[in-house]
């Protein structure tokens, strides 16, 4: 496929200066904020919404509070409703947002981007571009001529249509699309298993009747003890009520903290991590000596808060009874955006024996009747569901060409994204939806606002070297905060991160009405309505 445009002498179409890849929350947020440039959005499927359309179970609900998972200029119809919206409601919300702001007209559905080609520009020599030692300035975002060519495959034909753009925004998502599959020793993989095996992504494609049929009165093993694993085990338990019902076993490799709701010993959860005063306790990038010293002195408080939350969780949930108490502090799960909400009736199903747990290392494999472990113990299974997550990086690597592909995670194994958006070594391209926080909708929207300011020359990017060193510092902070730093989450210094975005945009960083709410009020998407 490479080079197809030139080989076939097909001139790439020029339809807009800006191309956006992906029509999930991030792509839609970017499209809205860049709408004055009339961008084209390529969406591989027939719908917007991304994971909310293609990656949900019957029981999936929003985990963030709806007030946080809200576009700044488009409130939820019933925004004070404390219940968590279902995946259907989230999708409806995204769709009505796109319709309200007339974004649908720019979306090309069933249009999968299969290749990107860098055609360079006058400012950077394409043979040198990308190499840190050779790049000084990032360059102009809209230079007046195409920089990227984009190959798009449509569902109704196998032919490729090429488009060219001055600037490309990649929003193809960290989750969904490409399942993460465990590896097995030879002759011990799924091929020898007599039962049914599927990944959570396949499960999402089934309707309620089909899932019930799949699970009812079956011995099911769910691999993975994070949000998908927990939700699927509960769906399995619900399908196995009655005397014929079989227990569902969750395979747990790493224990993680889960919370039952957003209240801890009667206090709202936001008090602990989502106010300026609470984030003062946490390390942030480029914080200076004085703040570093303060942070060090306040570290007992930081650990105390984590312990305080753990004490509530251990009291409220029977974690110790079932050997589910994690060894790492709660803070590390929070700081890596891994904190899952435990569904209300999960532990009542555990008590009934409908859900049980099997702890394991990575060393487990199949036998014809189920799963076997290092210590030779076995679990029988009719159905095995891999709730093992997704390969977001593989998606990116399949379309980003060399040499940029090798720089994707340079130099430290996480994408170095300046302001969570610009890879200093990849010209004329932005990435939205890769650095997570408590509400990923808010993260994508605020970064899209920043991107719009950047494209419109409201501010300039620093030198490449300076962007790289800032992103490196951010990674060092993440590494010091949580062993799960590869999730790339900024939850413990999200306010500071957004302060920097506000400063770039020339907005006031302090968004509250008075000092008390500035210090102790929760910071959420509603604080960041656009200032023009
Ligand atoms: C089940 C589930 C529940 C979640 N719940 C929450 C929550 O409660 N709170 C929270 O903050 N986060 C949650 N998340 C995280 C979630 O990923 C983000 O909130 C957000 O929806 C991600 O949006 P996105 O646009 O970045 O990615 P996606 O939703 O993955 O969208 C990417 C889009 O790009 C398209 N695409 C992919 N490849 C191509 C290509 N080559 N060409 C063209 N199009 C392409 C896909 O079809 C998709 O539509 C959840 C994730 C999952 C999986
Ligand atoms: N809002 C909702 O209701 C909802 C529902 C589902 C998912 N989500 C979101 O979707 C995203 C993906 O979640 P996810 O749960 O699908 O994936 P995930 O968070 O990546 O979790 C994958 C799980 O599989 C385990 N695993 C992976 N490989 C394994 C192996 N070889 N052996 C044993 N265990 C293995 C992991 O263990 P380790 O921890 O040891 O790696 C982990 O427990 C998250 O952001 C999540 O919050 C949200």
Please give the alpha-carbon distance between the first and last residues: 44 Å
Return the CATH topology of the largest domain.
FAD/NAD(P)-binding domain
Radius of gyration: 24 Å
Question: Main beta sheet, described?
Answer: 5 strands, parallel
What's the helical proportion of residues? Answer: 25-40%
Strand order of the largest sheet: 3-2-1-7-20
Number of helices: 19
Q: Provide the number of structural domains.
A: 2
Please tell me what the overall shape is.
globular
The structural class is alpha/beta
Broad CATH class of the largest domain: Alpha Beta
CATH superfamily of the largest domain: FAD/NAD(P)-binding domain
Average of per-residue pLDDT values: 93
Named CATH architecture of the largest domain: 3-Layer(bba) Sandwich
Strand content: 5-15%
Ions, cofactors and other bound molecules: flavin-adenine dinucleotide, NADP nicotinamide-adenine-dinucleotide phosphate
Number of strands: 20
Q: Residue ranges: pLDDT <50 for 5 or more in a row?
A: none
Short summary of the structure?
With about 525 residues, this protein is an alpha/beta fold. Helices cover about 30% and strands about 15% of the residues.
